């Protein structure tokens, strides 16, 4: 299997976002080949070849934007000044390579299916799980075993199981039908979630909110909670109610609403340190570029060996790099 697709498979299995970059058109001189592909990870690493070092930072930057926005993008990198105007559906960037040329690329983000955690064992919970698998969700479920005699230990394991199933941006529906609503909602604290819904009646909603606030749950969390969960479509049976909840989740997903006030789990990610190549003025990641030089105690980054060599001939002339 090609190295690129091996890496794509690994990222998919690890539920890590990435972007596929494909060369769709070139104008000579260009080292890029039509049909060539590369992957860009969320950490800014590129696997594969779609052009020289001069365009690599531009491609990575655009790919990271696509991953963040979840949208595909056509990108034209050209030395033709008459084309340097972005239009609908295409982003145009200046070619900074001395060899000039033109490269057009298609960048497609590959995002893991969002997690939908259904808490509780009820007809509505069952319907949610059955329908959601057809809507590109990774469906998970957890329910408290009331037959167990472990008492507090059983509840503790239950809340730990909830938290183990959560991931940043997850969607959660509590459908325990009043059996352990408060305990389930409290277990969600400390996660950045896209949606939290509670299957309940309007009257019981007030009792649950009061209970949460008495137990120290933040006002922001209570305001974010959708209760009763689902759009008001006059649904009656469990399957219909499940549809209204999923409709509300889809609305939230497309509007990209998030519980941003909560702190997501900390993950290590080496941040990019972007600087301007003093020769060609291209944005370069100082942490990853292979072409660096030091002058008067300051480190400079370059897109390619040619720019580095030009700098070293007269460093005093070009020593004006600024971080961006």
Describe this structure in words.
The protein is of the alpha/beta class. The protein folds into 3 domains: 3-110, no CATH class; 115-255, Rossmann fold; 274-318, no CATH class. The chain has 10 helices and 14 strands. The protein has helices at residues 3-13, 53-69, 123-132, 152-165, 181-186, 202-214, 219-224, 238-255, 305-313, 315-318, and strands spanning 18-27, 37-41, 46-48, 73-78, 90-94, 102-110, 115-119, 138-142, 170-174, 193-198, 274-276, 283-285, 291-295, 298-302. Strands 3-2-1-6-4-5 form a 6-stranded mixed sheet, with helices on both faces. Helix 3 (123-132) crosses helix 8. The relative contact order is 0.11. Mean pLDDT is 85; it is low at 260-270.
């Amino acid at each position: 299997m090609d190295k690129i697709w091996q890496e794509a498979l690994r990222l998919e299995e690890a539920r890590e976002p990435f972007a596929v970059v494909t060369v769709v058109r070139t104008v000579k001189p260009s080292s890029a080949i039509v049909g060539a592909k590369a992957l860009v990870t969320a950490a800014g690493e590129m696997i594969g070849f779609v052009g020289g070092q001069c365009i690599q930072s531009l491609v990575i930057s655009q790919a990271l934007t696509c991953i963040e926005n979840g949208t595909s993008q056509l990108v034209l990198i050209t030395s033709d000044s008459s084309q340097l105007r972005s239009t609908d559906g295409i982003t145009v960037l200046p070619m900074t390579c001395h060899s000039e040329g033109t490269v057009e690329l298609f960048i497609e983000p590959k995002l893991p299916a969002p997690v939908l955690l259904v808490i509780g064992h009820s007809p509505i919970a069952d319907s949610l799980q059955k329908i959601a698998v057809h809507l590109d969700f990774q469906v998970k479920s957890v329910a408290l075993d009331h037959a167990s005699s472990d008492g507090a230990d059983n509840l503790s394991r239950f809340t730990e199981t909830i938290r183990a199933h959560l991931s940043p941006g997850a969607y959660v529906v509590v459908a325990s039908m009043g059996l352990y609503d408060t305990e389930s909602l409290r277990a969600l604290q400390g996660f950045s979630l896209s949606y939290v819904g509670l299957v309940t009646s309007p009257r019981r909603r007030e009792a649950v909110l009061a209970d949460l606030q008495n137990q120290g749950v933040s006002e922001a969390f209570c305001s974010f909670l959708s209760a009763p969960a689902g759009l008001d479509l006059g649904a009656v049976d469990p399957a219909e109610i499940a549809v209204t909840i999923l409709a509300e989740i889809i609305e939230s997903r497309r509007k990209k609403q998030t519980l941003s006030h909560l702190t997501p789990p900390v993950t290590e990610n080496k941040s990019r340190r972007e600087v301007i190549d003093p020769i060609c003025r291209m944005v370069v990641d100082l942490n990853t570029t292979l072409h660096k030089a030091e002058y008067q105690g300051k480190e400079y980054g370059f897109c390619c060996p040619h720019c580095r060599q030009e700098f070293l001939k007269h460093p005093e002339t070009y020593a004006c790099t600024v971080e961006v």
